[in-house]
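ok posting inputs for the D-serine job
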Amino acid sequence: MEHKDPEVWKHMQAELQRQQTVLNMIPSENYVSNTVLQAAGSVLTNKYSEGYPKKRYYQGNSHVDEIELLAIERAQRLFGAEHVNVQSLSGSPANQAVFHALLNPGDKIMGMRLDMGGHLTHGHSVNFSARYYQTVQYGVDPETELLDMEAIRQLALKEKPKIIVSGATAYPRLIDFNAFQKIADEVGAYTLADISHIAGLVAGGVHPTPFPFTDVVMTTTHKTLRGPRSAMIMCKNEDRLANVEGLDEKQAKKERDMAGKIDRAVFPGLQGGPHNHITAAKAVAFGEALTYDFRMYAEQIVKNAKALAESLMGNGIKLVTNGTDNHLILIDLRPMGIGLGRDAAVALEEAGIITNCNTVPYDPSTPFKPSGVRIGTPSLTSQGMKEPEMRQIGEWMAAVLKDMGNTALKQKIKEDVKELCSRFPIYQGREC
Ligand code: DSN
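and the output
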């Protein structure tokens, strides 16, 4: 590639070098294994496979069928899921497919507010989920910054949504999926658990699982799960809310078939050919996640996040909910000034620490100039870093946040970061 397409190659090499020399603390990113990379960059990208294993619209799919079946079977074992669709291309289209499968336009979705830690597709006004459906949004308690399940229950009783979405992109505590299910049972709603951020923690047994009771569980595959950039949808075989009144036996069977509804929503409802190279990479990642080593990895992600949170708080930095139970930490910069998140993320990048600015609950500023910084430990843990490194990183971060304009300090920390990364190398002949 260096000779055939030097322009693209040059940027790819530079990106590799960037990843090798900075601390990647964006909680939704990770470093995949060389095996996952190999599958993702394979000849499987050449094949069209519309349909599902053994029921394709194109010939020549016998090997692709086996790969897709392996991915499905491994995901079923990993999560205890009844049915799995591994063809979804990414998180947002996967949530779109779930709504397409179970709702009619105009039905009501209830999900977590984006500015309190939810996701665009959980019913935010600028997203398709609010354009084609009615939405009602819940947040966190203003005092504790935690999900208040009784307040969510009262909202659900009042609003009677058709589906209740749980899951978050910026919530540092455990999510009680069981409590969401009980509320949904009370109001006759479906449940969708979007476990994109925490799938690796669920698989590793360090976060409560939404299985087997949740109707549909969606996850991206590239965050804590450490697979390729993609998604999958897991669901029960049977639709417990199916309305079969007046239907003949064949129609009633179809109406009760939740797995079939999800599959038909993905293809042909929303997508054409699946990305077979990514399906293979997912199969590899799920195989890795089934190992003892991965359980240890998931445990270490949480230990690292807790050690980092302690270090930051010990150095005078305020955190949303005063800590973390998962892979993610939300730094609250309001005590230092409103709307400082973007400046802080830029200053940290100048010190070799990659984060993203984020709203904090009840942020007095705007989403473009928010008052928080979101960080996490999945990538650092993939590199093999542990609690001592987290304590050091917490000290560096606190120093930068307290003196954002200090160029000499940021330069010095950037050099220290490079040295630390050289002791935990990635993609240099060693698996993450
Ligand atoms: N963009 C993802 C995240 O960073 O959390 C959510 O889709």
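notes: The chain has 16 helices and 14 strands. The chain has a mean pLDDT of 97.
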